[in-house]
Automatic annotation (TrEMBL):
May be involved in 20S pre-rRNA processing. Keywords: rRNA processing. Residues 121-187 are annotated as: Disordered. PANTHER family: PRE-RRNA-PROCESSING PROTEIN TSR2 HOMOLOG. One of its GO terms (biological process) is rRNA processing. The keyword DNA-binding does not apply. This is Pre-rRNA-processing protein TSR2 homolog. Residues 134-149 have a biased composition (Acidic residues). The lineage of its organism: Eukaryota, Metazoa, Chordata, Craniata, Vertebrata. Belongs to the TSR2 family. It holds the Pfam family WGG.
Length: 187
């Protein structure tokens, strides 16, 4: 791919910025500080890195741009992109680059303004996903709650537990003639 003239190169940089700023994966990574304290600066740098990647390499294919974006997200934000958005983002950037090369400035400006409207419509919010272990823990908490509710329904107030004896009776010692000591759990 031939080098872009200065004005179309600036337009392409603006287009890359618009695409990346509306990419939910990058938004989430920046908003949640996946890149550390400088997450926003890394996102800004990423725009320049992508633009420079196109400038330095000729005849880039979509899969090469996908690999480059994936590597940037992994290295800078410790994020593996597996939501299926990577091919779409790479395709948008590749198409913008080709349009800039062909001098289709108005089309690129239209896409940029469309992406700006999308960005102003609202940012994506991240929600925590529970691991299977956490889900099991929540389920066991629910089971405990249900058991407590059953106890409460049986006439025992949840705020007042039945009185315990001062000294519980000691379990009878097991006669172990074989030399083993039986250890029992306290109640």
């Amino acid at each position: 791919m031939a080098a872009l003239v200065a004005s179309t190169r600036e337009l392409f940089t603006e287009g890359v910025r618009a695409v990346l700023e509306t990419w939910p994966v990058l938004q989430i990574a920046v908003d949640n500080g996946f890149g550390g304290v400088y997450s926003q600066q890394k996102a800004d740098w990423m725009v320049d890195a992508v633009q420079q990647y196109f400038h330095d390499n000729s005849d880039l294919q979509q899969y090469e741009v996908e690999d480059f974006l994936s590597e940037l997200m992994n290295n800078e934000f410790d994020t593996m992109v597996d939501d299926g958005s990577l091919p779409e983002v790479a395709l948008q950037v590749c198409q913008m680059f080709k349009q800039c090369q062909q001098g289709k400035v108005e089309e690129v400006k239209g896409q940029i303004s469309q992406l700006a409207r999308k960005k102003s419509a609202g940012r994506v919010k991240a929600t925590a996903v529970k691991s299977p272990a956490e889900e099991e823990e929540d389920e066991s908490d629910e089971d405990d709650t249900e058991a407590m509710e059953c106890d409460g329904a049986a006439g025992v107030s949840p705020n007042h537990a039945p009185p315990r004896p001062a000294n519980p009776p000691a379990p009878p010692p097991d006669e172990a003639d074989d030399g083993w000591t039986v250890v029992r759990k306290k109640k």
